[in-house]
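Re: the request from the purification team.
They wanted to know what the chain is likely to look like in 3D before they choose a buffer screen. I agreed to run a prediction and write the result into the notebook, where they can find it.
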Amino acid sequence: MTSSARQIVVRVAALHWPALLIGSACVGMALAVWVSVPSSVAIAVALVGAVAAAALDGSRRLAALALALVAVGLGWGSLRIDALERSVLAADLDRSGDARVVTLGPARTSAYSTRVLAETRSFRDRPVRERVLLKLPVGRSPPRGAILEARVRVTEPSPEQNGFDERSWLAHQGIHVVLRASDWRQVGRRGGILGLGDRLRERVERAVSRGTSGVRRGVVLGVVLGEDEDLSADARNDFRASGLYHLLAVSGQNIAFLAAGVFGLSWLLRLPRVVRELLVVLIVGAYVLAVGWQPSVIRAAVAGALASLAWVAARPRDRWHFLALGALVLEAWMPTSVLDPGFQLSFAAVAAIFVAVPRLRLVLDGYPVPSGIADALAVSCACGLVTAPILLLDFGQAPLYTVAANLLAFAAAPLVLGLGLLAALADPVSHSAAAGLAALAGWAAAWLELVARVVAGLPAARIGARSTALVALGAGGLWLALRTPRRRRAVPPRAALALACIAAATAAAWAAARPAPAWDRPAGLRVTFLDVGQGDSTLLETPSARVLVDEGPPEANVARQLTGMGIHSLSAIVLTHPQRDHVGGAADVIRRIHVAEVLDPELAASGPESREALAAARERHVPVRALRAGMSLRSGGLRLDALWPEDAGMPTEDPNQNAVVLIASYGETDVYLSADAESDVTAHLPIRPVEIMKVAHHGSEDPGLAGELRTLRPRIAVISCGLHNDYGHPRPDTLAALAASPGLVVYRTDLDGRVVIDADGGGRLDVHTRR
């Protein structure tokens, strides 16, 4: 180590030694996620470190203490993870009984079920305290903190052999069983300090609802409480693609705005400084109770409260110290927090603000940029660059225009938060005042939604790793140009800055030129039979829903085809049966496109492509739903009726015999999608006349097709198959049966390419093809 580097280390150790020691304990707890050690070993290593620290001095003493604290953290983390991995209810798997549970968060409702994190209080008349995932029938949802009595069955969290596995995601939260309730009733609300938080949250929700509705209400609740359940999948996707989703997941920014507002109001009221600081601690604590346990909130709340208490106690304040304490609190309770993208993004962003923002701010001081805009620009640039690698690693994409979007939104976000909270404060005194304040918050929220929608609609709003590398290259050139000392610059600083900006803009333009155009929203129903070669992939679109039935083979690159159509989110995808030509591209679709849900028949038969798709769903935390005969699903005016399969079948059975058979309906237009299930299966199903059908099994020979056509009476039939395929599809007998059906027009993806059918929900059908 050089002398200058040694001096830097000594200086950092002298200034930030508390943060370094706390960080050492955090590192130990993080290591416990992957390495478990017995308590005796951890204690022995900690004692050795403590003895060494007593015998040493200076930086060596600090290093010995850090080693001791790593051992302490590793030991504590191992104990916590062992405790989190224990499950009392695991011994009751597949047993049913009466349970009493308390909901721990807001319920998330889909067309298929209501899911809420909960804690059991009793099961089968015996006391049990264990966190669970509670699945309720579709319908009304319980509020946070509700005490429920329900008839439940204890199940594993979607075992992998059945095709849908939430195990690892739930295990990170200390949850190992799912309670499936057949019926439930609310019998009370939890009390104590957590009950107070529930009541505060409901007060905010009630006040906001007095003056807002629809997407405005959803955005206001998202900014104030981190509650995005009321927003549509499209709206959530717009916020993600624009880089504004952090506004909907209560962050440290909320705590900072709240603390600044309370402090400023207290100053206007001429309250003493001690009272102001203590009031900040009290209000921030109440806000944390209302919002709930979220990494960014806990981190910021710990930092803000400690900063105020440090002033009251006349102690020095070190922001790195407070940041480390926030991590310590989170990891001490849940060591697996380090695996949570929210934890990673929160701490990375704050570290970037500490390190990079002051330097960027100094650079901007030499330019005619207003102070507020310069601050927002510096924060957006620093946070955007630091969080992009985390987003790429966890989600496969990063927002390109996040700096511009955050600049446009920076003034509106604190308005939404402040007005929303003021509405809650005013509500007990005057409902009219609360409604007025909430309405003002709604107008500011409308601006945020507009910014998110417009920015998300720009070309290349979200880019992958390769394009991100090019943009980073341009930004790196900008940084080097600004960092080079004046005496060594070959060109004037403004010229260097201009060149670097041009390089960054060129990289961004190159990335923007490649991706998809904006989505062409249909007026009614649009059915697109994608050209995937020898395989199947059918896209159903309405003005507010997009469902993909099968995803073709991997080489068809359905994900790229969809982004080329401007589609970056899907309401659902259907895995009809585990065969490569139907679900080979599903994993790529899940990783590259926001998918709200995966519908899977959970067949006993399986395949590598199906398993990969379900693994991708687990990685992205995409819920997987069982799809069986008799289910009717609705989304955006589209109705899906599942006619088959009735059960999982046998592991050795041909998956074609149990492939999903659907009828999709929009108004008076019906579409029959039978995957590879031929007439020997469908002859026994309640099929009915339809307007559009996909010919089963790529036009394979099907002796019962003629009889099926007499029942279906379609106007348009589409065969999805590959040009000159090895199977001879479509077979001559199949073509003959189709030709004999009166008034039927047949299209083939091997000859016609992509087949697009637009329907108005009445009788009109318009067909377009594209090679």
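For the purification team: The chain has a mean pLDDT of 81.
Please add any questions underneath this entry.
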